[in-house]
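Board notes (copied after class):
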Amino acid sequence: MAHTKLQDQLESVDEFERMPVPTGKLKGLGSFIGMYAGEHTAGTEFVIGPLFVAHGVSAAGLVFGLLVGNLLAVLSWALLCAPIATKARLTLYYMLEKICGTKLTAVYNVVNALMFCFLAGSMIAVSATAVGIPFDLTMPNLSDWLPNSIGWIVAVAVVGSVTTLVAMMGYSQVARVANIAAPWMILVFIAAAIAVLPELGVTSISNFWSVANEKIWTGVPLEGQSQFTFWHVMFFAWFCNMAMHIGMADLSILRYAKKWQYGFSSATGMYVGHYIAWIASGILYSLFLYESNYSTEFAPGPVAYRAAGFAGALCVIVAGWTTANPTIYRAGLALQSIRPQWKTWRVTMVVGMITTAAACFPALVMKLLDFVALYGLILMPMGAVILIDFYVLPRMGAKSNYAETFGKRFNMAAASAWALTLIFSIVLNQAYGVEIFFLGLPGWFVAAAVYLVASRLIQKSALAAASN
């Protein structure tokens, strides 16, 4: 009976994958405030904040880099992604199908889904470090790439199963879980960081800054880690979610918004989440380093447990869970769009299994900064394609939605923009030593320019052929 009821509930989930979201299904501001706060007050925050410490960023570089970078991220969501989302009200994947054709979109969707699987996997792995505390699991080190015990795999499997089940229920359940968890999680982050400040030598607000420079964000990287500056922090804060804002992945989320201004709700994630959480987790990690004589063990669960006890460990579990939920949901939509006849919940279940398998590998956590930058860079060019197609081509006398308009299954202009942008980025990185964190900005302009020029040429040729 219970199984049948669950089956019926899953079958009734309709995410409007190939049609605009009906007016009656639009959601208010509260849904997006909760979702962004929950998604970006995440398990990965317990990794990113400590990695800034490990990379030796200074206190000023961190504080001001996060201030500027997060502002640019909010503006990218609100001014670039949200207006298109609320006008078209289509998923990213269906919009790309109209523009790029089914063949190119299928390639993109597979890459997109895999990237989201790996990202969600890192979040599940973070939660697993807390699940393993009662069982005294051996935690991964900064240099670990492979799972180090059966216990670790079991912990990952448990977290992955619960996360996948919620994502299978659809966006409404994802948003509901985030709204419940978000306010509590950020309070734990703040309380834990404040609680350990006296152990680092902070006796009042007046001496916080000096202690921060001497013991937390010292400007000196750990052995084997590269040096980070203000610019690393700023560009990372802006582009760590590049795939979602300028890459347009959040068209699939913001299509439910009643107004485009709801894109500004991402500020709850960027400032309540990223800003405060990265600073707080950096403080917790600096105490761990101090007490462990700069151990290379890297496990957010025990670090939070040391500072806030059971509440800290539970916060790590829930934080990873609430972030993995919408990420698995996005990945499920990406794969489902390849075969529209597949039920979204079934695809999401498969995605969850892939994600859980990926989470077993600690490398996703240890190299998280690089991976986050890489996945955004790979997916970003299609965001430039959508923006140019939606706003610029009609103003220049060209047609939007090339594949739909001309009956094509493959848009060479979009494929060229994607491929040439990635080649350009590889050349900058390998030949000129430009770090991956700085490639997104020039890459976006390359993608936009290539798509604009190539579209004009291809459409002109197509119209000439049709007239003959």
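Comment from the instructor: The mean pLDDT is 83. The chain has one domain: 28-377.
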